[in-house]
Amino acid sequence: MLTPGLRFNAYFWVVHIGSRISAARREAGLSQRALATATRVSHGLVGAWESQKKLPGRENLVAIARVTGKPMSYFIENVVPDLAEMVLTNADEIEIVTLYRQLTPGQRISHLNLFRTSVAVRAEIEQQSSPAKGQRVTA
Question: N or C, fewer C-beta in 10 Å, the chain?
Answer without folding.
Answer: C
